[in-house]
Amino acid sequence: MTSIWDGTKVRLRGIEPEDWQAFMRFDQFSADMRSVDLIHPPRSAAGYRRWATDRATQPASDDEFQLAIESLSEQIVVGALSTTNIDQRAGRFSYGIGIGRDYQRRGFASDAIVVLLRYMFGERRFHKCGVGIYAFNEASINLHEKLGFQVEGRLRDHEYFAGRHHDVVIMGVTIAEFTERYPLPDV
């Protein structure tokens, strides 16, 4: 039996308290932290344990959540994703995704995004997904283009870090564009 949360390479699952070590390893690379979000102050091992425990015991929501990305072959956490900017009225949402340095360029991100979009479009009735990507993150822009996202605009000098302002590229995909490439499963 397969789960809607299983792709071909990854499984999306809740964050467990024992996942804290994986997230601590991911945060050791400032460039990776910056590509996903921003650089946070150092956290102790106890802080990571508390963070993972808090995520594991957080009440579930159908639309706004944070999940671990687990490799199906190795059964280890390779990254995480979270939904954001939920707009039920307009039928749109966004997400953020990060894959640990040792697991990048292996197809985990694209597989996780497809699993997420199938759920949000096919089960939660959303119409559009939009993402904002730092303009210097060419790998993420290319990934999203391959998944069918369209460039919708650019926010100039929108975010500040590393001593200067950076552009953000806005990309989006509708359910029709997504299902043209990735049909929703039959019931």
UniProtKB/TrEMBL annotation:
InterPro entries: Acyl_CoA_acyltransferase (IPR016181), GNAT_dom (IPR000182), Ribosomal_N-acetyltransferase (IPR051908)
Keyword set, alphabetical order: Transferase
Protein's name according to its UniProt entry: RimJ/RimL family protein N-acetyltransferase
Claim: Transferase is one of the keywords in the record: yes
A molecular function GO annotation: protein N-terminal-serine acetyltransferase activity
Keyword Calcium appears in the UniProt entry: no
Organism whose genome encodes this protein: Saccharomonospora amisosensis
Organismal lineage: Bacteria, Bacillati, Actinomycetota, Actinomycetes, Pseudonocardiales
Pfam families linked: Acetyltransf_3
Entry GO CC: cytoplasm
Residue ranges constituting the N-acetyltransferase domain according to the UniProt record: 10-176
